[in-house]
Design goal:
2 helices; globular; Translation Initiation Factor IF3; alpha+beta; 3-stranded antiparallel β-sheet
Length: 67
Amino acid sequence: MPVIRVQDKVETLRAGDLLTALCTDPGVLQDIPAWCRINGHQVVGTETRDAEYIITVRVGPAAGGLA
């Protein structure tokens, strides 16, 4: 579910925007970077804090966002 939520939010953003996802599922540390590679986005940071996984994504040029 976190990847779908990130995908939905990215569609509302512009290329170059940053999105930070706060998740509790450790699988996102592999899932979101894989999704980013496939879709032309970039993971610019990951952090683990207690039981939270924080991933920051830079939206790529193929984003459907606002003009």
